[in-house]
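Researcher: Here's a chain I'd like modeled. Treat it as a single chain, no partners, no ligands.
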Amino acid sequence: MVLASKRKYKKSANADEPASKQAKKDRQSKEVEMSDDEDDLMAGNTGFSEEENGDWESGSDDDSDAEHKPESTEIKKAKLTEDDIIAGELEGLKETAELYKSNIFKLEIDELLSEITMNYEKHKALEKALHNLKAIFDAIPDGKQMKLKAFADDILKKNKIVTPFPDPQPTEEALHSFAFEKPTAMHIVGGYGLKTIAKTKTPFNVDVAVEMPNSIFQEKDYSNYRYHHKRACYLAVLTKAIKSSKKKFNVEYSTLDGDLRRPILLVKPAGDKSDVDFSKTKCVIRILPSVNAEVFPIHRLAPGKSCVKPAESTPHYNASLLMDTSYTGNLAFLYQHSKISPEFKNAVLLARTWIYQRGLATMNTGFTPFLFSMVMAYLMQGNKDGTGKKLSASHSSYQLLRGTLDFLSTHDFKTEPIFIGENEKPEFSKQEFLKHYEVVIVDPSGTLNLAANMSASGLAQLQHEAKLAMTYFNDSTDQFEPLFLKKVNDVKSKFDNVVRIPFPQTKIESFDASVIADYYSYLPYFIKHMSYVLTRGLTNRVDLVAIQYEYATTSWDIDQPIQDIEKDVSITVGLLLNSDNAPRLVDMGPESQNDEAVAEFRKFWGNKSELRRFKDGSIVESVVWQTQGYENRSLIVQKIVLYLLDLHLKLESSQFVYWAGQLFSYLNFAKTVPENLFSPELKANGFHPVMTAFSQFSKQVRTIDDALPLLINNVYPASASLRYSTVTLPHPVDFNNMIAYPTTARYFDAIDVVIHIERSAKFPDDLTVLQKVKAAFYLKMSEELRNRFQIDSIVVDDINEKNPLAIRGYLDVYYYGYLFRCHICLDQESTLLTKIVESSKSTKLNKELAKEALSKFMYQLRYKQTHTFYIQAMCARFTAYSSTVRLIKRWFGAHLLSPQISEEMIELLVAHVFLAPQPWTAPVSTLTASTRVLDLLATWDWQNTPLMVDIEGEMTAKDREHIMSEFLQHRRTNPQLTVGAMTIATAKDHSGHRWTGKKPNRAVAARIQALARASVQVIENATVSNDIKRVFVTPMQDYAVVLDLDTERCTRYYQNMHPESKYFKNTNYNMVAELGDKPFAQFDPVSNFIADIEKLYGHTLMVFHNKYGGDKLALVWNPTVATPIQWKVAAGYNSMPVDMNKNGFLKPAKGKKDISKMISPNFAAILAEIERLGKNGLLKQQE
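Model: Modeled as a single isolated chain. Structure tokens:
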């Protein structure tokens, strides 16, 4: 849209005059002239005023250029040669390399810009609406002088329009009066004026600054809300004019950035399909009353001056008034830079998208795209002394954005405020601004702090996001998506702790009359004070205290009094924990000799502060948070926050929702589990007992190698119990008192351990003989352990292993309550098996046996061992990783997915969330990490994208390319996804199917995603209601058959989330006698039953069960097998003719003469066979 203007914009007199001074002149000039070469600044972008006949005329660049273009001779253009084209392409590539991160990044930015750039040519109806509004305002007659209260009563009585006076409202005794005069000028300002509006899902704003005449104000109207009261009257008259016009618009009152002192008018389309109906444009016109800067003495509005009694200074009040004088001057300043820098507007568009995705503007942090634009322009201009210029007009949009973000991420705003322009008066000095504001960004006039409403918390959030953005820019991998495409401000995934606080009804004592005079309401002061309290109290326990809030509604009807839009405001406090310092037990204060500091410390901490003497001899004030165990220590920050909010802000914990430790209860044994068998002290000790036992055991094993023919190189862990990832904590078992354990609590893990024996040429080349040699080693080790350390052990030969080439034996060692299952690893085994597989002389049968044996060897003795090593490293690096893995395993179990998912796959899924946390930081909270894992499962496009997990820290760009290549090849060769539905690749597993080759299949992968989406929605709702239990409740209606297990035969029932206490009482002595007093390692009859079912009917059905204490068995028939096939002898499953009726007779189908030879699975018979297998054993008998 191009709007013409008769009013001219004055060109800079001197080219070397600082932009800040020029901008100040622009803002303060009452009559503004426009030069020919800047014809489209005020016309096309920022404003409009009266023409001689009241009409609008085009003010585009093309028109003005045509009027003043000198005559010239046409130059014939030479035809481009092939060399010219190649040279141009090379120049383009060179430019891309210099101005952008990479060619792909440039293409992504170009594509994004094409998507978000607004097409202003389509805004004809909006343009007509703006013309119409100007005509309406110009036609308003002058009003008569009336006292403010009388004016408000009159317009309410006659027109049913309420004058939106801010508090304190004018009284009948107030002497100052108001008389309307038509606007001096109107200007389109803001992003629409600069043509930097980006397309988003929400309607955009078209800001129209309506300049009120100087004559309606008196010199001292700046004080005691007199300006704001007259401003409200002026707005009411504009509202009346729009309401009574022939063209219909919907109008509402609102506020500018929540400032109740500065109400504005929202003009929305009526939807009547008239020529001014701009519904399709999806925008809102905001009428912003403005005033010339010369109306009031500028020094009276300095930060340290008081305009409202009894306050000594009213910096926020003064800034509120000054902002109404700054619209056109600041826009002119930005326009100058957009003219000299071709990519300036594109950089602003990118910044808008970046800010929008992070919610920095919508969540009232105080930082807006306008502020970003001003800072970027400042970095292009520099300071008055020539310093501070960090950007060039020739930079690309990418470089401008990156340079500005780099500056914002590192600049120290507390000591070095930004002065775009400077004012020589001492009232506007650097010290004055720093004294009265938390963040200072002074506009080109040198008088107004543009960041007056920005809190320290808002600045912290901005700098945190800017630092993250810089890490993405510097990352060798493409991070375009987290930079611009992902919605970042999802509090449940972004922050480690989240507190939701309703707006308090009672005010704290420090909110006295002097504070009320400066702040427009209690909300901004409350936010500022809470930010100070939490930042001081939490110190380095947290990396970020982010306070955000949003209004339930921001507008109200024009016939209603000014609304308390804050009564339903929702305040959110987000905390990013520091993993090293958050669990700290003690906060150290000042030494006892420093009386003043001690008094201040005690005042802040209240009764929690106490004088203590520490081991180093120091005697200091301190605060101690007594607690034990990882779970409790991870909630120390919650204790501190609750205590400080109650002490300083009078907020009780019952008033709000604290989102931190809601899921920990699902990791512990239920209260109904007998404490005499499963000690509650486990919760405090965690994995320490089992890790200590393994450490001692491995040392003792290494000492017995002097009795063996060969040395033991090392003992490696290869179990979930030794990589901190079992759902329930490994518990020591009293092997000498097994009769005390009921059947429902007889299960205990066999902890896999891999023992490496040194290489020797004396080992036999016959694999069958080699297995017997290993058995001899096991027997000797068992003997030595018994003789030297009185440790019981037993050598086991796995009779279920029918492959003569495969590993089959192991040594079970009963070690102080734990059972370590030792597997000897000989490198010769893999060498011999590989030779058989690769040999051309081997028979087909031997090759198949060798492949199967080699696969078992690699998984059992190599892959699990290395996987355990990397998972241990993850647990050491990320404190929340262990508990998150355990919780996600619990989630998979609760949804009966245990038989379909390997534990290693789950551990890699969780590792990805920690290793690639973009667009956030790595989580420190279990709840946050778990939410992100579920969100990953809900959104991962597993059919088209592999998940690359750099758990080894070795993955290169070449590795990623190779993984992608293998993935695409697998999808081409197996489009039905019969194997490897989900691909999770690492640097040492490019195929990505080491742990996901056979399971989950395509149907299970789809169900995982559906369940994850439902769980994410439950968590979304629970952030308000605090009800999260349904995350672990699975729908049962989707299963074909659900079988009830006999709970008394479920040996892992004690791991159930909600077990019944009656199943832990030894009332049935026959059941105890059935298992006797002997310990049975890893005895889980339900898992064995499932294994048998899958072995017999695995291609016909899928089995679902919760191995962590579940008492249900669910079956789903395989839909691919259900399709009828031609009858054959070895069909592979129990089948029946498709033409057999319910009575067992063959009858041709309708329309057919002959009986079909097609067969289909006999599901009823298969189910009967399964029930027969479980009869009088695991399945509950129907009464």
